[in-house]
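Thread: Modeling a multi-component assembly for a lab meeting

Hi all, long-time lurker, first post. My supervisor asked me to bring a structural picture of a complex we are working on to next week's group meeting, and I have zero experience with this. I have the sequence lines for every component (467 residues in total). Could someone generate the structure of the whole assembly? Inputs are pasted exactly as I received them:
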Amino acid sequence: MSETLTKAKFKLGVTLYSFASEWAAGEYTLDSMLKRVVDMGLGPGVEIMASQTVRTYPETPDSFINEWKGYVDKYGFTPSMYGTNLDMGRNRAADMTLDEEYEFVLRQIEAGAKMGFPTIKIQSASGELLTKLLPHAERLNVKLGYEIHAPEGPNSEKIMKIRDTYEKLNSPLLGFVPDFSSTMHTMGRSMLQTFRDRGLDEAAIEKALEFWASDMPHPQRIAEFVSYLESRGINPNSLGPFGRMAFNMNGHVAPEEWKDIMHQVVHIHAKFFDMNDDGSVEAIDYEKHTKIFAEGGFDGYISSEWEGHAFADIGQVDPFVVVKQQQDFMKKFM
Amino acid sequence: MATHDTVLSKQSLTATANGLSLAMTVPWYRSLWVSSVTSINVHVDGVEVPQDKLSFRLNGQSWPMSEVPNQWETLWFMQDRAYLDMDLGKAGVVGEEREITFHIELRLPYMQIKPGLYLPNIVHQVVKLKVQA
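Re: Modeling a multi-component assembly
Sure thing. I ran the full set together rather than chain by chain. Output:
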């Protein structure tokens, strides 16, 4: 007898971050991009990032909010999460003060709430800042989510500090956004291909995988890889930013750890880089991830987040098509 | 070339009355501030263009390179091209092929390592481009 699946309560969707290259190149307007999302059935949830989508960022004038609401009505998708940024270093003369941080983020939270997003992604979860923002989240009835992304995991030191802060503030509106990049079972194929394109041989690739999979602390894994390259006479700078990215973008925490924060999950990023020929997702165990969140009773949105654009040239992959494939694969386990 | 290292395209190089101009895409996955540009260095056919002959232009505003890191209230929206205008002392010639060595360093204003210190993004490109009209 086949194993019974727990019926998932969560809904699927996509973040427009997946289409960053096409957006930057001006191949789409917001209208035509949302139309293609809906035409290809990639919703119902749609997530955007203010700093990508909004020309007047961090301000969001009513004209933009009305434009957005018009798209929601026209295309019938559901706003899922609004990504804010905290550019505390935009003025080189001085980092933002706490009050400036608060004002910078609050403006974006207010806009996201007006645009109908139930969840707002936040970039800082410092206790001081959250204490000031929380009354507004209550007033606007939005949840605030801090993303847990590679190399962090639900139980890493940095995240444990935030869990402590959340416990002190004790609000159901404070939560996390798990990103599957934290819980990969190997480095992504496109990352390894980039290493090959930059001249690494198979022995070096194997070493990269070995250091990646080891239990050493994150900075040490990078340092060990760098010293290996140097011992072989390979200049680590020949990898450009990819040496660091390989370890920062591909985490190897056990997926089961997501259960430890299940009650605080407010949104999810179903990260992926590449699809296998058989229709499965490479480097990330989607069956396991999907089941963990279905069994955990998560009832929010899972946004597909294709990050292959960090490696692929524009035009090599149609990101809308791979998101469709990835969602079809996930549906098998829902 | 992917989201974090795409700056120039085949159509980037254009002729101006006193030289050449390069159209630049933000080499990151989101919009940044003009102040996020730490520095730009460019060589044309192996010859470095002095910093005081470069200016950074965006949406009708233009700054000398020394002023760029101070423009923290002007957003470089990711769908907008910024232009690096190079004063080479003579008009650019449409149709010529020029070798451009382009180096840009960014400071990512939200990726704080510690107070006052931010993660950089560095892109170095060597390309042969045909001068467009």
